[in-house]
TrEMBL record:
SUPFAM superfamilies: Cytochrome c. This is Sulfite dehydrogenase (Cytochrome) subunit SorB. Residues 1-26 form the signal peptide. It comes from the Bacteria. The lineage of its organism: Bacteria, Pseudomonadati, Pseudomonadota, Gammaproteobacteria, Pseudomonadales. It comes from Pseudomonas saponiphila. InterPro entries: Cyt_c-like_dom_sf. GO terms for molecular function: electron transfer activity; heme binding. Keywords: Signal.
Length: 127
């Protein structure tokens, strides 16, 4: 009976040693991600620097461009507030309005239309 109590301990030690020896020969896993190419639209607005530094901690600038065009500053404020409260974004309460103003002025329908128009004119050679 005394020997049976030590069988599980012996089995556990054997499993640990086998696992350790199997893993010690494994090569470390290396993952190389592609370079980030998306950038926030440059702006003299103070929200640009904050968004570039804080929003990009969690997602790329591409995520901003996927939002519906024509969002108002109030709608952007709601999105930024959601990131702050629901997802724990490191944004101070005072920064929410500053970021929202930048996003509304930079990514609303009018600036997007001008950018698309400029891009189309550049690609077609039209001044």
């Amino acid at each position: 009976m005394h020997r049976l109590r030590h069988v599980p301990l012996f089995t556990l030690v054997a499993l640990v040693l086998l696992t350790h020896s199997a893993l010690s020969g494994a090569a470390p896993l290396s993952i190389e991600l592609p370079t980030e190419t998306a950038r926030f639209e440059p702006s003299p607005l103070p929200g640009y620097a904050i968004a570039s530094g804080k929003c990009s901690i969690c997602h790329s600038a591409d995520y901003i461009q996927l939002q519906p065009p024509g969002m108002s500053q109030s709608q952007w404020r709601g999105e930024v507030s959601k990131m702050q409260h629901a997802f724990g974004a490191p944004i101070d309460d005072q920064e929410v309005d500053v970021i929202a103003a930048y996003l509304a002025q930079t990514y609303s329908a009018e600036p997007r239309a001008k950018a698309a128009e400029a891009s189309g004119a550049a690609s077609s050679g039209t001044p």
